[in-house]
Amino acid sequence: MKEPVCVTVTGAAGQISYSLIFRIASGEMLGLDQPIVLKLLEITPALGALRGVTMELDDSAFPLLRKIIYTDDAEIGFKDSDFALLVGARPRGKGMERKDLLEANANIFSVQGRTINKVASREIKILVVGNPANTNALILAKNAPDIDSKQITAMTRLDHNRSLTQLAQKLDSPITKIKHAAIWGNHSSTQYPDLHHCSVDGIPALSLVDNEWYVNHMIPSVQQRGATIIKARGSSSAASAANAAIMHMKDWVHGSQDNDWVSMGVISDGSYEIEHGLVYSFPCICRDGEWNIVKNLKINVFSRQRMTASELELIEERDAVSHLFT
Ligand code: NAD
Ligand code: LMR
Questions:
Q1: DSSP 8-state code for residue 233
Q2: What are the DSSP calls for 163-195, one per residue?
Q3: Which ligand is closest to the CA of 154, given by its number?
Q4: What structural domains does the chain harbor?
């Protein structure tokens, strides 16, 4: 057995966390040989509900779960944290875009960035789930200057998974046959689900579907899937978001399966001429605990237009919160 690691989850009494925390505690994220100390962070009014979650964790008797700390004090919540899943933030309601949450949620990430900078492990791996995830991750990075910005990521894995399923259902193919799908840009309705490099059982995906379906059905339905779920459920996706968070962290730590691509919101290094420093979703390969952007892909005019549209939206979001950058 390894030494225990510290995993922090914020928004721990919320909807996503109710799926997420139990899967982390079971070992699904970090492996069945990795003992865990769980640190659960909430705002004060939610501590009663969070206490109920900790009782249920106790009652699950997870063999890997060494200790649970639950708190409304961010310094305690992030102290020596090795992994942090930042879920705590307001979700959007019907008729809102995710960027409408910027004002309500941005401040959370500047405060948490400063706290992480002060007390967390220098090797911490961070996933921002709370929306608007890309720009919240950027705010966090700007407020945590002593943490390598490669350790701060935003979640677009849910969009990636949505793309895989759309294609798999269209072709009646197992998901496992689909390789090299990609989400570029923002976790928003400007995101670009790209099938130009994608194959299904070795055959180029775009030769198997008609262009009309790809452009007028698949792309918009992935872009709008979050809103469609809110309309149907009355609240935003929760179990599928938790699942995507588990897959994101698991692949980052243990490597992406069969060297396939995964989509991650990461700090742009200027690849594909995307503005340096934005948190932008790229196709990545994870290996040895690191992610790397897939390089040298050919980008046609169709893709470039969509990649730029999402980049421009992220620039707008960045400029709207630049007062929070230290
Ligand atoms: P929820 O309202 O059920 O839970 C959020 C929790 O965060 C609440 O319990 C709240 O008390 C807590 N919280 C608020 N401020 C906090 C703070 N400063 N510190 C700690 N906790 C705090 O919401 P949810 O459905 O779990 O969604 C959480 C966030 O995740 C939302 O912003 C939602 O839009 C986002 N989301 C992102 C994706 C993605 O793909 N990136 C997918 C689904 C949802
Ligand atoms: C999603 O994609 O389901 C989440 O980001 C929730 C939302 O607001 O759409």
A1: H
A2: HHHHHHHHHT--GGGEE--EEEB-SSTT-EEE-
A3: 1
A4: 5-153 (3.40.50.720), 157-320 (3.90.110.10)
Q: Which amino acid is at 52?
A: G
| pLDDT > 90? residue 306 | yes
For residue 283, is the peptide bond before it cis, meaning its omega torsion is within 30 degrees of 0?
Answer: no
* Any atom of ligand 2 within 6 Å of the Cβ of 98: yes
Cα 274 from Cα 266, distance rounded (Å): 11
Give counts: helices (H), strands (E), the chain.
11, 14
Closest-lying ligand to the alpha carbon of 96? 2
For the record, the structure tokens of 326 come out as 């230290």
pLDDT digits (tens, 9 = 90+) for 282-296: 999 999 999 999 999
Which atom belonging to ligand 1 lies closest to the Cα atom of 158? 40
pLDDT digits (tens, 9 = 90+) for 9-57: 999 999 999 999 999 999 999 999 999 999 999 999 999 999 999 999 9
Residue 138 tokens, joined: 């950027």
SS3 content of the chain, % helix, strand, coil (to 5): 50, 20, 35
Question: Which residue is it, tokens 């698991």?
Answer: 250
The upper half-sphere exposure of residue 106, i.e. CA atoms within 13 Å in the direction of its Cβ, equals 19
Does the model's pTM come out above 0.90?
yes
Active site annotation includes 217: no
Closest-lying ligand 2 atom to the alpha carbon of residue 131 = 5
